[in-house]
Structure formats: structure tokens, C-alpha cells
Write a structure and sequence with these properties.
This protein is α+β, with helices and mostly antiparallel strands. It has four helices and four strands; from the N terminus they run H-E-E-H-E-H-E-H.
Length: 106
Amino acid sequence: MFEASVRKYENNPYLLKKNRQVCGHNFQGGRDQAYSFAAGLLSMGSGKRQVALLSESRTDWVISELGVLHTGAVSVPLSILLKEGADLRFRLDHSESADHSIRPSV
């Protein structure tokens, strides 16, 4: 569905964020960034497995999620509100995303 939306609305705003001023991505730019993220994951050997994303709510999380899905992997979204320790460890272990650690230096 995302690819169809990019074709139909490629220049329309897709994501907006506010720093000092409102700036954003259009659909085409969002897809390009998702492809770049996916290529980075694949180059690090993510393959088609589970990829855990630990992030606060932000536009980069959406791009990362799309990138994970474009690799064919399963996304395991994790909130920064999870208590470090038991909750976080359980989700990583249960999803099997902790079996192969890939830690991008971003």
C-alpha cells in the first residue's frame, strides 16, 4: 500500500516534524530514505529475520519501520517507556530479535 501511495502522491507531504520550524518529507523522499535504511540493514547482514527498533516517537522511527519491512524482515517495535530489564529482555528474547545483534552506529 505504501508503494501505491508513493506512486499516487509522490510530491504530497508524508511526514512533518517541528524543530525550530516545520519541515517534512514527501512520499517520494520517505520511500527513498526507507530504501536507504533497508540497504544499510541488508549490508550489515540483517537478512529476513526479526529486527527490534527501540525509539521514541519520531519521524525517523516511521522511516526505520518501513526500511525493516522493505528488507522482508519482521519489525519488533519497542517503546522507550518499557522498563529496562524484565519487560525489554522478555520482548527481545521472545521475538528472537536478540539472537543476532546488529547495532548501527547512528
